[in-house]
Amino acid sequence: MAEVPKTQEHLFGGSPEKQTPNPAYCTLRLLRGEIGKNMNQKIITIDGPSGSGKGTIAALVAAHLGWRVLDSGALYRLTGLQARNQNADFHNADVLGEVAENLQVEFEHGKIHLEKQDVTDSIRSEKAGNDASRVAAVTQVRAALLGWQQHFATSQGLVADGRDMGTVVFPRAALKIFLTASAEERARRRYKQLKEKGMPVILTSLVEEIRERDERDMNREEAPLRAADDALTIDSSTLTIDEVVEQILAQAHKYCDLTP
Ligand code: C5P
C-alpha cells in the first residue's frame, strides 16, 4: 500500500508550481464546457465529517491512481483565518464573502502562504477548524469558493475531499464516497494527530468540539453535510486505512476512467 505523501503538495493538486486560483478563469472553463462529461469519469468525491480520515484516504487513493487531490476544507480554513486576521465581523455575511473572494493564497512546494505568510500549520488548529465551520455556513463564502474548487478538475483525474464535493461541487462525479466513523473514534484519531504535532489538546473537549462541528455542518441551510443519494457510505470506525483505500479503489475500477 502506498504511503501518504509526506509533503502537502497533494493538497492542491500536487504541482510544485505556484498556484493562485483565479475565479474568472474557472468560470471561463465552465462556460467553455471544459469541465464536461468525460472529466466526470475522472473525479472521485470523498465527503464526510471531521476526523473520518478523508484527507489521508483521499491522498492515498490519489497516489495509487496518479491523480490530483483537492482538500476543500483548507479553503474554508484559509477564509476563517483571513477573517480573523482582518478582524472581520463573523456575523456579516457580505464581509465574509468578500474575504473569501479576495483570498491571496499561494500553494507552493507543499506550503500554503496566505498573503506571503506561511500558514501551512496554523490552519490545522482546532480553532481554525471551528472558524472554518462558521464561515462555511455563509452562502456568499461558498459561492466565492465554488469556482476555485471546480478548477481543480483536470484530465489527470481528481480526488476531492470535503463535505459537499458529491452533492454540490462535483454532482456528476463518477464515484462518490461518504466516509464516516463514530464521534468518539474520530476524536481519538484527532487527539493522536494533534499530540504528534505537539499541539495542546484535551480528549473530552475534542469529542464535544467534534459533535458541535458535526451539528453545525449537518444542520446549516447551505450545502449541509450529507451523503449524496448516489454515494457509497463507508463506516471506517472498525476498518484500517488500507481496507478503506482498497474498497474505494475496487469501486474506482468499476466506475471511473482510469486510463492515464
Ligand atoms: O475538512 P476540514 O476539517 O479541513 O474542514 C473544515 C471545515 O470547513 C468543516 O468543518 C466544514 O465546516 C467546512 N467545509 C465545508 N465544505 C467543504 C469542506 C469543508 O463546509 N467542502
Any overview of this molecule?
The structure is a single chain. This protein has 260 residues and is an alpha/beta fold. The protein has helices at 23-31, 37-40, 54-65, 72-85, 93-101, 126-135, 139-150, 165-169, 183-196, 203-219, 241-255; strands at residues 43-47, 68-71, 105-108, 111-114, 117-118, 158-162, 175-180, 232-235. It has one domain (9-250): P-loop containing nucleotide triphosphate hydrolases (Rossmann fold). The strands form two sheets. Strands 2-6-1-7-8 form a five-stranded parallel sheet. Strands 3-4-5 form a three-stranded antiparallel sheet, with no helix packed on it. The radius of gyration is 17 Å and the shape is globular. The two termini are 20 Å apart. Residues 4-11, 13-20 and 22-34 have low confidence and may be disordered. The structure holds cytidine-5'-monophosphate (C5P). Cytidine-5'-monophosphate (C5P) binds at residues 50, 72-73, 76-77, 129, 132-133, 136, 162-165, 213, 217.
